[in-house]
Amino acid sequence: MDQLCIVTTGGTIDKIYFDDKSDYQVGEPQIGRILEELGVAFRFTVIPILRKDSLHISEADRQLIKQTIAAQPAKHVLVTHGTDTMVDTARVLAEIPDKTIVLTGALNPARFRGSDAEFNIGTAVGAVQSLPPGVYIAMNGRVWDPRKVRKNVAANRFEAAE
To answer: CB burial class (10 A; 0-12, 13-18, 19+) of residue 113?
Structure first.
């Protein structure tokens, strides 16, 4: 992997909560800070496209994500994305040839102690370097084919689709 292209779209991984309002907003992308703190031994660029909860990502947004990734020279792309519609976006990105694209996110904000963000990012970084071209989802310590996975909202985890 010469260089990793990271595309950020928002989602829980980048959320900031305000207790006094019981509200949140999607803040600055956290992945660059996380990778720098971990001292990774590869170059990466971060392209922030959206700052949205994935429930608010439209089909037009998905096309923008797809066009942005397709226009990058990098063959390895990691996408941070909200978990609720990650599978939908992955299916759109499957139309991009000759790139290894891995989507990941978090069920708890990266700023929270005990967040799954760092673990999911680590899984995604390993996956994007070792898998053949295609689109994958890295969540809960597993790498999934987006055609064969779903988010179980009640259990708050990804699992095989039936």
So the answer is: exposed
